[in-house]
Structure formats: C-alpha cells, structure tokens
C-alpha cells in the first residue's frame, strides 16, 4: 500500500461509516430527516446519530488531509531519470479552471475561459432542476 493511500482509506471509511450510522439512526427512529429551503437536514437525539456526525466531521478532516498529502507528493522533486517534456513546450503554460458553486438554490459560475461559460451554466441549471425534482419527490 502506498503511503498516500492511508488518508484516502481513512476518509472513505469514516464517510461511509457516517452514512451508515446516520441511516441506521433514521431507520431505528432515533432521528428524522427533513428539507428546509432546498437544504436537507437530520435531527435527533440518538447516540447512533451522534456517532454518524462525529464520523462525518472526522471524514471531512481526513479528506482534507488526503488532498493535502496528494498535493505535497506532486510538489516533491523527482529523483534520477530523464526529464519528461513539459506539455505546451515551455514554462509559460497556462492553467485553465472553471466550475460552479451552489449557494442554496443559487448557482455561482466561475472560471477563466469564456468558452466554458455556456456549458457551466447549463450544468448548473441541470443540477438545480434535478435537486428541485428530488426535493419535490421527497416531500410527496
């Protein structure tokens, strides 16, 4: 097992355990699930729910640790061996990025390539519509 695999394994185990514990609390009647303004929530007083929330928090920290360790591995200099050519042909290569963020039901689109804007807006609209359908089906 690689040394970088431990944080990912820990994160996935914690997040999976959290989902299982919270689902167990809901199915046993120790917690209830609801939706408030498109935001799902879980409320209850079950020890199983508390375990699920603790595992969820630990899982998010482990996921951050895993991402940071992966970024640290990418920054480490490589030892002996031939140098690989850099894509783009030089040191002035440009990185492109783009995405969307849902703040409640409002999508915020960002990026540095104008050509991506229509695709990101379409993806954001599709996601909001899918969430709306899910919430409406969940409540009825």
């Amino acid at each position: 097992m690689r040394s970088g695999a431990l944080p990912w394994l820990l994160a996935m185990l914690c997040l999976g355990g959290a989902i299982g514990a919270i689902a167990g609390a809901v199915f046993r009647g120790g917690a209830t699930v609801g939706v408030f303004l498109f935001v799902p929530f879980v409320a209850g007083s079950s020890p199983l729910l508390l375990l699920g929330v603790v595992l969820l928090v630990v899982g998010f920290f482990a996921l951050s640790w895993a991402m940071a360790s992966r970024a640290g591995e990418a920054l480490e200099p490589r030892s002996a061996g031939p140098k690989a050519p850099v894509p783009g042909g030089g040191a002035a290569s440009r990185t492109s990025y783009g995405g969307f963020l849902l703040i409640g039901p409002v999508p915020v689109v960002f990026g540095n390539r104008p050509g991506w804007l229509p695709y990101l807006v379409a993806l954001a609209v599709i996601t909001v519509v899918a969430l709306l359908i899910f919430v409406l089906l969940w409540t009825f």
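The helical segments are 5-27, 47-75, 117-139. The chain has two domains: 1-76, 98-140.
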